[in-house]
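Hi all, posting the design record for the shared folder.

TITLE: backbone redesign
STEP: 1 of 1
STRUCTURE INPUT:
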């Protein structure tokens, strides 16, 4: 576990929001939950909350949460969890000192760099991206990235999850689940792998994203699915998506209040239903483009919203999956590099624990194989910037500095190049995907641009990387689950 997880270990997080600001946002959200309430379209969740002491109006579906009840329920959720891989080597402790990155899901199209057009996504794209995600060193969690247009809609989710389990040994996250039936099927799959439901409750090899509906609404089917996940101790990334100016106020604090209230409402429902269920505070917040009303996931405001949402998650002692990388760019290039780099750096410095978004464009609707490679580079650089700095006698090298001396003088002429320590320590430098050869050498090598190199790398991975597949017998059982789902 340590070798893989240590890749994502970062220094002590930087705090940005003042404690008083966090308190004000938190108390405002509690006020909204108690006075306005949250409409919950799930009878299961409403029943559990009513038993716990919430005020439930069955005619409207509105639930009002006494502040003390909300605090009591939220306190039941674990503050630290481990997102397990199929193999323990890939287990990920979510403990406030690691910064993990996932692929993103729900794409409906694929960008073709050669023809510069889009095509519909198909099951082969899930198979391909699972292989690439398994290979990429800075992709820690694989999430099926597209909707496969070439298979029946009712088995989109379970088919994609089966392929993920078959291919990668890393942790698998499910994003597209929309019904409790789909959640139950995925629980069956994960249980087959770990040896039963009780073992799954201990070893979280799958987690799931469940979105709220802004403002102040929880969807019925999605919330019912969250209850199934909670019953089986499957970690749920509660993903609020309040957009400033549309589904939330046009101020960062106001939008955070709406998001905090929605997130705490679903977290409270999960704890009322299954106390101790692993619950992750996950937010992908944004603002509208004031000229068009369109979403701006890669904006400066979106970056800060997700930074602050992360800090609100830690304020209530919940694991955090707020934001990540995800560009509005329509094609891979300067815009996606700029937006994703700024978000990745911010995530590392604040200690954001789970970051969504590798490989997707145009607000997570378009898969790009090239962007997967570029995002892996972006994440690697960000993590290199976030390494914990060891300041001690060995790293200060005071004796060496005195011995090497002044440039051009003395036996060593002021150069550290010949020092044994230099040779050893230089091996720890971050190794970029991009080369740094002189211009003339770059010309001789074909003058390849960044996207050409990224495309070649993706093609090389698909040809040469052969993941350790799931046991064939277990894979067959997962296939039977998919077949039964198709018939039902």
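Okay, here is what came back for every position:
SEQUENCE:
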């Amino acid at each position: 576990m340590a070798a893989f997880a240590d890749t994502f270990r970062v220094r002590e997080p930087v705090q940005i929001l003042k404690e008083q600001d966090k308190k004000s946002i938190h108390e405002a959200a509690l006020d909204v939950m108690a006075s306005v309430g949250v409409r919950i379209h799930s009878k299961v969740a409403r029943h559990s909350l009513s038993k716990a002491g919430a005020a439930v109006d069955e005619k409207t579906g509105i639930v009002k949460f006494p502040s003390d009840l909300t605090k009591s329920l939220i306190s039941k959720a674990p503050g630290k969890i481990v997102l397990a891989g199929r193999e323990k080597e890939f287990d990920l402790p979510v403990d406030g000192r690691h910064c993990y990155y996932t692929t993103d899901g729900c794409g409906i199209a694929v960008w073709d760099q050669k023809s510069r057009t889009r095509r519909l996504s198909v099951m082969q794209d899930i198979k391909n991206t699972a292989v690439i995600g398994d290979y990429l060193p800075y992709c820690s969690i694989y999430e099926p990235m597209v909707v496969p247009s070439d298979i029946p809609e009712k088995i989109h989710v379970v088919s994609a999850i089966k392929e993920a389990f078959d291919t990668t040994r890393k942790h698998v996250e499910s994003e597209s689940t929309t019904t409790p039936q789909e959640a139950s099927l995925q629980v069956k799959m994960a249980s087959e792998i770990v040896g039963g439901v009780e073992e799954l409750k201990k070893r979280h090899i799958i987690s799931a994203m469940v979105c709220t509906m802004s403002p102040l609404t929880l969807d019925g089917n999605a919330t019912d699915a969250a209850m199934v996940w909670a019953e089986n101790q499957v970690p749920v990334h509660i993903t609020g998506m309040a957009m400033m100016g549309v589904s939330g106020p046009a101020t960062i604090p106001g939008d955070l209040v709406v998001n905090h209230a929605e997130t705490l409402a679903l977290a409270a429902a999960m704890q009322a239903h299954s106390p101790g269920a692993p619950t992750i505070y996950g937010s992908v917040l944004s603002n509208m483009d004031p000229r068009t009303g369109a979403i701006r996931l890669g904006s400066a405001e979106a970056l800060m919203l997700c930074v602050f949402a992360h800090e609100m998650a830690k304020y209530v002692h919940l694991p955090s999956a707020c934001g990540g990388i995800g560009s509005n760019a329509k094609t891979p290039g300067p815009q996606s590099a700029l937006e994703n780099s700024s978000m990745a750096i911010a995530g590392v410095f604040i200690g954001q624990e789970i970051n969504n978004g590798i490989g997707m464009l145009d607000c997570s609707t378009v898969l790009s194989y090239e962007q997967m490679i570029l995002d892996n580079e972006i994440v690697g650089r960000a993590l290199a910037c976030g390494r914990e700095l060891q300041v001690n006698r060995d790293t200060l090298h005071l004796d060496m500095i005195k011995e090497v001396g002044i440039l051009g003088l003395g036996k060593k002429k002021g150069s550290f190049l010949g020092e044994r320590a230099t040779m050893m320590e230089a091996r720890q430098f971050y190794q970029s995907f991009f080369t740094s050869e002189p211009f003339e050498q770059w010309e001789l090598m074909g003058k390849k641009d960044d996207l050409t190199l990224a495309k070649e790398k993706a093609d090389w991975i698909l040809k040469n990387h052969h993941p350790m597949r799931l046991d064939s017998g277990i894979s067959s059982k997962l296939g039977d689950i998919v077949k039964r789902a198709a018939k039902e």
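COMMENT: The chain is about 45% helix and 15% strand.
Let me know if anyone wants the other runs.
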